[in-house]
């Protein structure tokens, strides 16, 4: 439990009981803040609606000291962003009566869409700011179906308020040279890793994630709380499973 209390900036614990394997019953709410660069941040919502019991959060749970017209983009399988919403401060644009997320109509309309846990989104900010995510920590395994193939993208993330090793994410249905990419503030992917099955490339002795050296080296990077990345897959039909944040 100390790990959770350290990772979450503030928590209220309604009930808990500890066992040898960790927390067996809990109702934890809290919030987490992260710095946004002047540019892009791949972000995964870490909290669901309080008392909702669902596997989704809401866009309204992501706030911060955004500037008007900072935006959040939903990346599709082609790497484009056909859906996006903009943050507008009250009075900065016709129809914006309160600070919040709005569509791109004229006048704008306030929006509050579902954010399924385990997926990630691209936040674009004009200046260095803070993003605040608050709600309930859900004690559940998260499973994401990979529906994109042919080198297309699925936006994945660490939806827990604790850092996890990449090896804690269980992938099925991957083929050698499927890869994950970490987007930087300029929208580029300077860090990426490839999945290789044992024997498919020099240096790959076990199925797993490897760097792009020759021969390759196995990697197991830390995925910080709320960090998102792009998964590129050659075929559809696989899954990504993320353990409960209460699982060691």
Question: What does it look like?
Answer:
With 248 residues, the chain is an all-beta fold. The chain has two domains: 35-137, no CATH class; 142-242, Jelly Rolls. 2% of the residues lie in helices and 43% in strands. It is built from one helix and 21 strands. It has one helix spanning 2-7; strands at 10-19, 22-36, 39-43, 56-58, 62-64, 71-74, 83-88, 100-102, 114-116, 121-125, 129-137, 142-145, 152-157, 164-165, 170-172, 179-182, 191-196, 208-210, 222-223, 228-233, 239-242. The strands form six sheets. A five-stranded antiparallel β-sheet has the order 3-10-6-7-8, with no helix packed on it. The protein has a five-stranded antiparallel β-sheet with strand order 13-20-16-17-18, with no helix packed on it. A four-stranded antiparallel β-sheet has the order 1-2-11-5, with no helix packed on it. Strand 16 (179-182) and strand 17 (191-196) form a beta hairpin. The N and C termini lie close together (10 Å).
